[in-house]
Structures are given as C-alpha cells and as structure tokens.
Amino acid sequence: MMDILDPHEAATAGGYCEMALAVLEDLRRRKRLPILTVGTGLYLRALLEGLAEVPQRSEELRERLRVRVKKNPPGHLHRILKKLDPQAAQKIAPADEQKLIRAIEVCLVARRPISQVHRAGRKPLEGWRAVKIGLMPQREKLYERIHARTRSMLEQCWMKEVQSLLESSLEENAKPFDFIGYRELRAVLRNELSLPRAREAIEQATRRYAKRQITWFRKEAAVEWFPGFGDDPELQASVSRYLQSQGVEAGRGARERGV
C-alpha cells in the first residue's frame, strides 16, 4: 500500500488494519503470496494481534498537550505518562512526542491506563499464518546506507515536495511535518536552518529511529533473523531456504518479485 493518504489525513493503526485486511482478502482471492515490509512495529502488531477499542482522537486535548511541550522542559510528556501508566511509559521513548500524546490522550479519555485498554477485546488476524523474517546488518553499514539514502532523497526533489506542502496551506502541526526530514527542510525553506545542518539533523534522527526499530523488533516474538541487507544474493538464498522449511511455496508473486 503506497500513496494511500493525502497530506492532511492522519495515519492510524486502525486505519492501516482496515486497508490491510482488504488487501489480504484480495490477495487470497487471486492466490497471491502477501509480503509485508514492516517499518512500524505497532502497525504489524495491530494487524496480527488485533486492536482494542480505543477512544477517538481529541484534537482539543492534543493541542493542549502540544502547548505544554513548548512551555515545559524536555521529558515533560513522558513524566505525565509515567504517572498515568508506568507500564506504557516504559515502552515509549521520552522523545517520541507523537506516541506520548496518543498514550496520554487514551489514558485521559478512557479514564484508565492505556496498557489496560490494549489488553481488552483484541481480535487477532484469522486465516493467515505469519512467517516473520528480520534483517540485521552491521550497524556501521546501516548508517552508511542511511546517509546515502538521505543524500539521494535530497537530490531527487525532496525539497520541492516540502515546498509544495507549504504552498498547500497545511497547518503548522500537520502530520507530514512530524516525519523525519520534513520539519528540517521546512526550516531550510524558511531560512531558519542551513541545508548542510538540516542534512546532518535528518541523518541523526534517522539513525535514532533505526535504533528504536531494532529495539522494538528484537522483542517481537518468532522472528528469524538474518545478518545483512535484503539485496544480498546469499542472504536471499538463505531466506528462500528458510521459507521453504516453513512450508511457504514460491507462487507467482514470489517468482516474479523475488523473496
């Protein structure tokens, strides 16, 4: 699923699950092999394990929390969540403002800890067996690719994309500006930051995000880990043998696109 939301639309785990289930049903009818490339562990967990009934977003409450972030020292939201739900606070990084706001929002609106909400009423994915594969390249090589990817995106009109978002009159706190790079490039266009400094900030933020991804997926159950990148032919062969050992047969989709 790509290019499925407009910039003003919010991405949610519930919305992702709804669209993903429709895609899975379509692939089942066409007898194709689904392959999920996962960067956000929460969304995968929501699809496989189901979602609890959580309150709707409260933009008024969210705005109040954003104001408190600006008025208080770093870590303020994390301290609030720690009081409301210590268990949830342990799972969210102090700098992850988006997840902290949502967790606090659910605690306050549901009037109980979000960890309790998530334990209630989940409906797991039915009719599918998930075979999980994880890639673990060397940290230095991973960072090299992060830096190369950042340079490539900047060379391929990333700045023009951010400029078009600004010209579309999006709100200051619109979702795209929460994503790595977009806020930094907006600052460049406003002459608040130089491009070299912005590139360094983007690379640093991406490295930190990669660390958080590794931490999350290391805790994910039943993942078979392979050392290296997905474009390594030897790794591809190893993954293919593992899939065969798990009873996954190469169908039309697997043969056409590779593993």
Folded structure, characterized:
By secondary structure, the chain is mainly α. Among the domains are: 59-119, Histone, subunit A, CATH 1.10.20; 131-228, Helix Hairpins. The protein has 13 helices and two strands, in the order αααααααβααααβαα. Helix 4 runs parallel beside helix 6 (97-110). The longest helix has 24 residues, at 195-218.
Q: Can you give keywords for this protein?
A:
259 residues, mainly alpha, Histone, subunit A, Helix Hairpins
Short description:
This protein is mainly α and 259 residues long. Helix content is 59%, strand content 3%.
**Largest sheet descriptor:** 2 strands, parallel
- Identify the overall geometry: globular
User: H/E series, N to C?
Assistant: HHHHHHHEHHHHEHH
Q: What separation lies between the terminal Cα atoms? A: 18 Å
- Residue windows where pLDDT falls under 50 for at least 5 positions: 252-259
CATH superfamily of the domain at 131-228: Crystal structure of tRNA isopentenylpyrophosphate transferase (bh2366) domain
How many alpha or pi helices? 13
Report the helical percentage.
Answer: 55-70%
Count of strand segments: 2
Task: Briefly note the CATH topology name of the domain at 131-228.
Answer: Helix Hairpins
Rg, Cα atoms, Å: 20 Å
CATH architecture designation of the domain at 131-228: Orthogonal Bundle
Please state how the strands of the largest beta sheet are arranged side by side. Answer: 1-2
- Report strand %: under 5%
CATH class of the domain at 131-228: Mainly Alpha
